[in-house]
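User: Hey, my collaborator sent me this sequence without any context and asked if I could get a structure. I don't really work with proteins. Can you help?
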Amino acid sequence: MIYLDNAATSFPKPPEVIQAVRDTLETIGGNPGRSGHAGAVAGGKIMERCREKAAEYLGVERPEQVIFCLNCTDALNMAIRGTLHEGDEVIVSHGEHNAVMRPLMGYHDAGKITLRILPPDENGLLSPDAVREAITGKTALCVLCHASNVTGVIQPARQIAAACHSLGVPLLLDAAQTAGTEDIAAVGADMIALPGHKGLLGPMGTGLLCLRHGMLPRPLREGGTGSASDSLRQPAMLPDRLESGTANLPGIAGLEAGIDFVSRHGGAIREYEHALARRLREGLQNIPRVMVYGAEQAPRTAVVSFNLPGMDSGEAADALARQQIALRGGLHCAPSIHAWLGTTQTGAVRASLGPFNTEKDVDALLLAAQKISRGENE
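Assistant: No problem. I've predicted the 3D structure and written it out in structure-token form, which is a compact way to encode the shape of the chain:
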């Protein structure tokens, strides 16, 4: 199988990630923070190391401001639900994932918040000036999808963060598609939600919420933390305030190994993936009647979305799967982007490159797309 669905989850994982998960399951029989025996202490050290490495990699002031989450959706919900109050106004870009839009729309439909969705320019980019002009005295939060999981277009997040900060509004950055390849630390966002299982190359079931100094969301979940057990109230200190219940220790061990990997190779990974994406984009554009999405002028991740002539994206993705090419068709949990592209009815086929893909993989997809476009479906 040729795997081209890295925007959903990266695969394969580096060998050291797999080994870290295996070692934790085989050698550590303790629940971090819950006991004082050797296994529990060893597990706690893994969590501490991973937190420290994530803080350094992502430019977070203190390790305790890095919160372990179930995934990026969990981190986004934690930030959104823990920050907003009734009567608040929220500004979002047009390209938000349902992980952002569904909790916000729930609040909006209940009459608890006002939601302002800002349109992009012709290249799919949100203007920092438009953000600044949209902010009012009631604006409590701006949420920005750093890069679209459909077009790959990367927003000018650093300039948008500066626009928000000039008027005292915090920025929540959804870095689901940029963690591990783009310089997230340089953005200056107040909260960053990211998955561990995509660009950071860790296991599924891992994610992080990174908090700038002064950001202190209310807990999404409350319960046992292994600390202050004499109190019936949730601890106020980070990270315990936001981390209740048993942690995914094998996943966190794998995430630590993934962070080590991208810390060593991140720049090279980015350039390599972008070269593969250019090869794919150019090849698709040379196939008659194939539609490729995403403005050439905009910076992008290694995501290439397209449609084959006369086919629904799901049908095209299935046809490619029969040729052992794994990618994704549909709306990608981002219906607003598809409404903007005009692909709500068809969706799009998305190929997303990773560090372990090759030019041979790209050429196999191009050959398969050519055959299907000519009606040779098998």
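In plain terms: The CA atoms of residues 59 and 241 lie 21 Å apart. You can pass these tokens on to your collaborator as they are.
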